[in-house]
Amino acid sequence: MASSLRALFCLFIALLCIPPITVAQPSLPPRPLTSAVEALANSGYSAMSLTLLLIGDTLPIPSGADATLTIFSPSDKAFSKCSEPSMDHLLLHFSPKFLSQKSLVSLPFGSTIPTLSHSENLIVTSNGNKMISINNVKVSESPIFDNGSVIIYGIEDFLGTNFIASPIERESAKSSREYSSSSSGMVSVLDLQLMGFVSRGSLTEEMLRWSLFAPFVRR
Questions:
Q1: Which end of the chain, N or C, is less surrounded by CB atoms within 10 Å?
Q2: How far apart, in whole angstroms, are the C-alpha atoms of residue 1 and residue 37?
Q3: Interval 73-110: pLDDT, tens
Q4: Which helix (H) or strand (E) is 36 found in, with range?
Q5: DSSP code string of 70-92
Q6: Inter-residue contact 55 to 87 (CB < 8 Å)
Q7: Radius of gyration of the chain (CA)
């Protein structure tokens, strides 16, 4: 009897020494990205929402309160056409810079945007108008999500890898900027002239029907 009690006591002590069994829980992306995941899903970008949920905690994002991120999210239709994008290709759609709508519009053609991809950056292909284009892929005019540190834009397709802007595209963008600049100058001159007519009371109805052909000045 004594030996049985001694054996049960030893077994009890042994069980106490065994560490508790823990079940691994799926990791969630960092807190700012959790809101981004929800915003993508609510805006109809379900595929990118799921992608960000799966790879969010592995993104090479600098830590700290001042860490920022810009995400270019392909549409669900783009995901359905792309079989299995590589991790490096996905990282091409993440930039460690916070790019507001105003800053994106102001970037000239050929500007480079850093990405989390180790192999390449993005190239701005906007031609001077309000439409934003990167790697010849149209970017949504307004962001899907913006909390001051993470901002997300929708794009029609996946951003192409190994992208190089053609000389024709560069020349076209340059001409567009020059034309816009010279036309703006002509508008300013015309505005001053019309103000003179108005101040003298000599602006006639006939003048309001004038057509003006602004000269294009190549610099």
A1: N
A2: 63
A3: 999 999 999 878 899 999 999 999 999 999 999 999 99
A4: helix 31-42
A5: EEEEEPHHHHHHSS---HHHHHT
A6: yes
A7: 29
